[in-house]
Amino acid sequence: MPTFCAPDGTRLAYRETGTGTPLVCVPGGPADSAYLGDLGGLSARHRLIVLDLRGTGRSAVPEDPSSCRCDRLVDDVEALRAHLGLPRIDLLGHSAGANVVTQYAARHPERVARLALVAPGTRAVGIEITAEMRREPARLRKDAPWFPAAYAALEAITEGGDGDWEAITPFFYGRWDEAARQHHARSRPADREAVARFGAEGAFTPEATRAALAALPAPVLLLAGEYDLNSPPSAVARCAELFPDACLVVQPGAGHYPWLDDSTRFVGTVSTFLGPDPAAGLTGTARTDRPRTSGTRPSPPR
């Protein structure tokens, strides 16, 4: 697995799969990036460059634990871009990783060619996800045999109780089948201390980030899962409104890992976006577009 040196000297690892146009991928968690796999076969069309965030996977644990804060991880993404020798990058962030890449885009807009936010976290832009916003997609699963126990656990968690986090796992998948169970079993849960450091005080500056993103020249894809209570479509739609050139796609029947629920649809959507014309071909029942911000496109944290 190749490595590079972060600005503070921490040795960071990344893995490459596939060929074609490079796509730098930032995982959520912060957790081992292995859960992304090859993003449902996206590596057949693109060269995936998947970063292991510091302190996870094969990346080293930094001497300074506070360097794991979300805003400071932006420097690691920039160091990876420089290491790869790419003047600009196509960038994908999943879940909490979207908080890293949106801050990267705000800080380095000239370095972003295209930005894909998959089941994105919204803390970096200050969009609060309420309990009711989570209940809305959860209720769509009311006919599932596991629903009563899972929904009761969700209510306990959203009301501030301890709750049973394991019991709500089926809500994160479009189908709670054997493939989903295996994916969950293989995924390494994020360390609570690491999560706390990720979102520590100062990690997010929503007003400044939103102001910068309002002038982002790069096109943005926001892909939400219809059933995703972690990143509900209603919250992702609000996030889409922050960008001048954004396309919102809600993938039917998908949860928090849409490449597992329908790999063909997921790969088609992302590959079309990363093609010569990001807007071309994003049609059909999966597309839910926000109208482009009036007139022309401007000139150039779970």
Characterization of the model:
This protein has one domain: Alpha/Beta hydrolase fold, catalytic domain (Rossmann fold), CATH 3.40.50. The model is unreliable at 283-302 (pLDDT under 50). Helix 1 (70-84) crosses helix 2 (97-107) and helix 2 (97-107) crosses helix 7 (206-213). Strands 1-2-4-3-5-6-7-8 form an eight-stranded mixed beta sheet, sandwiched between helices. With 302 residues, the chain is α/β, with parallel strands linked by helices. The protein has helices at 70-84, 97-107, 131-139, 147-158, 178-186, 192-198, 206-213, 233-240, 258-261, 263-273; strands at 3-5, 11-17, 22-26, 47-51, 89-94, 112-118, 220-225, 246-251.
Order of helices and strands: EEEEHEHEHHHHHEHEHH
Q: So what's the overall shape?
A: globular
- Strand arrangement within the widest β-sheet reads 1-2-4-3-5-6-7-8
> How large, in whole angstroms, is the Cα Rg?
18 Å
Beta-strand level of the residues, as a percent range?
5-15%
Category by helix and strand content: alpha/beta
Figure out the total of helices.
10
What is the domain tally? Answer: 1
